[in-house]
Amino acid sequence: MTEYTMPTRSASSLAAAAQQVLHGLAGRRVPRLASVRERLQDAEATWTLGELNRALHALQDASAAVDFLPARGRAFPFAEFRRQAAALAAAAQRLATLGLHFVGRHAADAALTRLLWAEVQMESRSIDKRARQGLLWLGGMEQALATRRTPATAEVSRRALQELGRRGEALQDRLHRVQGLCGAARAARNLGDQVLAHRTALCKLLHEELRPASLQLQQRLQALLDGADTQHPEPAQLLAAIDARHELEVAATRTVAELQHLQCLQNELHTQLAWMAQKARPLA
């Protein structure tokens, strides 16, 4: 490790080298990682899915409420059907607006977020490498102490060796905590990658499946309403509308499931980022 002076084989020199490693990590590297973590946590806190989730369920409810089968022996209730179609169109428009905002924001933020996660990976790897070097030197220190304890008969010498041993144990404990922070960072990075992947998947569902299915159903419903001067709609148009609603229900169900999965991942990521902060606090 070129930024540190290579110690001699003496126990005190090895302990001093490990202390230098820890000082550099606590003074520079850990705060740098903490700063990136804080930026990520602040950004993730703004990704709320509640409104989009409510809009999705509102569209599902509006679609399910469309009644294609009038009471037996009665004329097709075009007035009520028109109201149902209007409610569906309003729900679809609301979801489309929120969906476009979600897709647009993800497109704008994804590149920066990936850069931040890459920085987390780079910093945590660098920190872990230095911590392992410090622990390696402490292992050498323990060997040197073991060699010196046997011939050490003077009380002053024994006390000095004991104190050096206690110092080494304290350094070892702190370096293990540093490694714990690196482990938390790796777990957060893994979750961050999953969150980005599932945001992309949700964008694809909203844009490529749900939106077209919604428009298709609205078009089929409008075709039925265009025949409002007849007592009953044409069977072919009615079947086409029923099929279109089924396609919308399938797309909506897939989208809701993806959104719920994403919400769980976002919650896990928020918890993991908070855990990183807790791991870093004793090292400051």
Topology as a string of helices (H) and strands (E): HHHHH
Strand proportion, as a percent range, falls in under 5%
Structural class: mainly alpha
Q: How many separate helices?
A: 5
- Oligomerization status of the protein chains: single chain
Which of globular, elongated, flat, extended, rod-shaped describes the shape? rod-shaped
Tell me about this structure.
With 284 residues, the chain is mainly α. The protein is 85% helix and 0% strand. It is built from 5 helices and no strands. The protein has helices at residues 11-45, 50-65, 78-149, 155-225, 235-280. It is rod-shaped and about 110 Å long.
Brief overview:
By secondary structure, the protein is mostly helical. The chain is 85% helix and 0% strand.
Features:
mainly alpha, 284 residues
Topology:
Blueprint: H1 11-45, H2 50-65, H3 78-149, H4 155-225, H5 235-280
Helix pairs in contact: 1-3, 1-4, 1-5, 2-3, 2-5, 3-4, 4-5
